[in-house]
Design brief:
- The chain is built from 21 helices and no strands.
- The protein has about 450 residues and is mainly α.
- Helix 2 packs parallel to helix 4, helix 10 packs antiparallel against helix 11 and helix 18 packs antiparallel against helix 19.
- The longest helix is centred in the N-terminal third of the chain and has 34 residues.
């Protein structure tokens, strides 16, 4: 009898569970059936635009904001959100080092020592070489090739017109850069296609003094002018007015002033603004911008001091450690660079630049097994390109894993573009000469 009672209770619980499940399913189906395709119709348009912005669906966000502004041109929330969406479409991180062209190098008025002491200039070729770097390829500037492609890593700083014409633009093309500002000019033309009748905002009619008193509108407007329109002059005027309204105590506006001065080539004025911003608040971005100024002035030791001060305030910050590793690498101090990249991985074990640089170091240090392990880590992280598979193939080849080498080169050939196909075949030719297995790739 006791057994039958237990069975009845169990059956009752099962029946209740199925009933609740069916009821919930019917309710859910009814809810979606009632709403159907009208779920967006009952949602607030501004809330939907904000949701699209957070999901990086920027074109749809701009379209929804445009419809809101057509109904109410004075909708400040929609206007500000549209500014932010348009800015994100062409945003470039200004913290990263810029690529210098002939105009910036040959017409630079900043005085730099022509015969600098070793270890104090990024323009001086590395004369010394350690044992591990004996077979490592060097750029024409005399610096070891970096394991991570960054602006300026392949070029150095040419001092004559002939060297400037021979300087590669990037790692993908040999066309020299005529001017770094040309990139910003091309980005500025993107504003002409945002509206059928022209740009979104008529900058000539803006009253900057009015917007400077409203930070919630002034900040997105500045970012729009600086990144989307590439109107540095008007962006500078807005930042100067806002700084004055803030009584010269807002670090953010001082940083924006420094960015404008740096873009205009007024490096010393940018330095003053970044130093003043540090007096109002110590933030990682400010240290990075100030170090960028000193790198532009070819003062790597001063930039290192800035990074060290930043690490005292923000111990273990991956961005500051990466900046120090880059400078050590540019100066030919490979051991110090490797040490800092290892510290970066202690903080951020998914840092692609640190992993790739360490892999390159171990490869040229006759440790292909360690380099292969690091490159496999990049593959597991989702990096999937021609360069990675070529490096995997070379590491497998020197580790005497020939079957893996063939597979990696085959995958590299399938992913190669017109810019990289020659490098792939060059490495395949080297592999074929040594191993007599190149016929498997033909």
């Amino acid at each position: 009898m006791l057994f039958m009672f237990s069975l009845s209770i169990t059956n009752f619980v099962v029946i209740c569970h199925h009933f609740l499940s069916i009821t919930t399913r019917i309710t859910t189906i009814t809810f979606h059936t009632c709403l159907g395709g009208r779920i967006f119709e009952i949602m607030d348009p501004l809330f939907m635009a904000n949701s699209l912005f957070r999901r990086r669906r920027l074109d749809e966000c701009v379209q929804v904001c445009t419809e809101l502004l057509e109904k109410n041109p004075r909708d400040q929330a929609a206007w500000s959100l549209k500014l932010r969406a348009l800015t994100e479409q062409t945003y470039i991180d200004e913290v990263e080092y810029d690529e210098e062209g002939m105009a910036e190098v040959l017409m630079d008025e900043n005085a730099i020592a022509q015969v600098a002491r070793p270890g104090t200039s990024l323009a001086r070729p590395v004369t010394g070489s350690t044992t591990s770097q004996g077979v490592r390829p060097h750029s024409h500037a005399g610096r070891p090739v970096s394991g991570f492609a960054r602006p300026g890593t392949q070029s150095g700083r040419p001092s004559t017109m002939e060297q400037a014409l021979q300087t590669p633009r990037t790692a993908h093309t040999a066309r020299p850069v005529t001017s770094a500002s040309g990139r910003y000019t091309r980005l500025g033309t993107a504003s002409m296609v945002t509206e059928p009748g022209g740009p979104f905002i008529d900058v000539s009619k803006l009253n900057f003094a009015k917007y400077a008193n409203r930070p919630s509108l002034a900040k997105p407007l500045f970012m729009y002018l600086f990144h989307h329109e590439n109107d540095v002059k008007n962006a500078l005027a807005l930042a100067a007015a806002a700084t004055e309204v803030a009584k010269f105590s807002d670090w953010w506006w001082k940083v924006q002033l420094g960015k404008c001065y740096f873009r205009l080539g007024l490096i010393r004025d940018a330095e003053k603004q970044f130093k003043s911003a540090l007096g109002n608040g110590e933030f990682v971005d400010v240290f990075l911008y100030l170090a960028k100024v000193y790198v532009k002035l070819d003062q790597p030791n001063t930039a290192m001091d800035v990074f060290k001060k930043g690490l005292e305030r923000f111990p273990g910050n991956a961005h500051l450690l990466t900046g120090m590793a880059r400078i050590h690498e540019a100066l030919g101090e490979q051991e110090e660079s490797v040490s800092h990249y290892k510290q970066v991985l202690l903080t951020d074990n998914t840092n692609i630049e640190a992993i790739a640089s360490l892999a390159t170091h171990h490869f040229y240090d006759d440790q292909p097994e360690i380099a292969l392990k690091l490159y496999r880590r990049l593959l597991q992280m989702g990096v999937y390109n021609t360069e990675l598979f070529v490096n995997l193939g070379l590491c497998s080849f020197y580790a005497q894993q020939y079957d893996v080498t063939v597979n990696c080169f085959q995958r590299a050939l399938s992913l190669a573009s017109d810019d990289t196909i020659a490098d792939v075949w060059y490495n395949i030719g080297h592999f074929a000469l040594v191993s007599n297995m190149g016929y498997r790739l033909m």
